[in-house]
Amino acid sequence: MAWISDARLAAAVSEAGGMGVIAAGQAPASYIKEQIDLARTLTDKPFAVNIMLMNPHAEEIATILESEKISVIVTGAGNPAKYMKRWQHSKVIPVVASTALAKIMARCGASAVIAEGSEAGGHIGELSTMVLTPQICDVVDIPVIAAGGIGDGRGVAAAFMLGADGVQVGTRFLLAKECGIHQNYKDLVIKAKDIDTIATGKRLGHPVRALKNPFAREFFAMEYDSNVSNEALEDFGAGSLRRAAVEGDIANGCFMAGQIAGMLKKEQTAHEIIQDLFVNAEELLAKNC
Ligand code: TUI
Known about the structure:
Layout: H1 7-15, E1 21-23, H2 29-42, E2 48-52, H3 58-67, E3 72-76, E4 91-96, H4 99-107, E5 113-116, E6 122-123, H5 129-139, E7 144-147, H6 153-161, E8 166-168, H7 183-191, E9 197-200, E10 208-211, H8 214-223, H9 230-237, H10 240-245, H11 270-288
Parallel strand pairs: 1-2, 2-3, 3-4, 4-5, 5-7, 7-8
Antiparallel strand pairs: 6-10, 9-10
Helix pairs in contact: 1-2, 2-3, 6-11
Residues 1, 25-26, 52, 76-79, 95-97, 101, 116, 122-125, 206, 208, 241, 256 line the site of ligand TUI.
């Protein structure tokens, strides 16, 4: 997510053996260009850029990704079919929340798809990872990357059991030492229990999972109040992720996080996180196969 998964975190993940992702979120195109340039000074390894298709600057960002010849483009929150031809020199990996979109993406030339379940943080679909992943694996013959609810080696092993070829992990990297979010955000994640996230924004057609706090509770109440217009709701949410990640505004920020937040207890380097995820997954898979 923008302000969270920036060049520094993406480069650290790529250096540690993962595929780091710079995320655009709602940010302007100039932010993405800066982050791409910075990441290239920090690592020689490939990294990905995530374009959130609901971003008002999506067209401009799409053009930057094309001209910068980004090796891997991840798309979220929509159907990227109209960009696929322009991005033919990149590997395009769309996040999908349904089998229908997964099939369309495979037909359009996607290199893989990310099956992201509703346990994830940020913008989410309807289905959980447990049911979405195997159903997507059954309908496409390109690699499937599972996402949502994967926070440790058990989650990684489970994703492989569901038929996935890889995993995307977001929330756990909120506690990466290289993740530059405000300390208040990290502290809230460390304090979170299993039931401390909430999905708001269903009425607007783009549900978002975040930690429960005064902002999230107020948003939830407003969306069930028929006297509140959609415009007023959108206005209330505007800038809330930045308020969380940059300002650490505990009352008014939107602290996006997935349901595995309750499992996270300490900060670690990106390298330690990746080692922990995959060493444990390999042990579990070796023991149970
Ligand atoms: O995009 C995300 N996660 C995000 S984006 C974000 S920034 C934001 N800020 C304010 C409001 C909303 C978002 C924070 N987190 N994940 C990828 C994702 N894509 N999850 C679900 C989907 C998805 C949902 C429906 C992808 C495609 C889709 O299909 C729509 C269609 O057109 O068929």
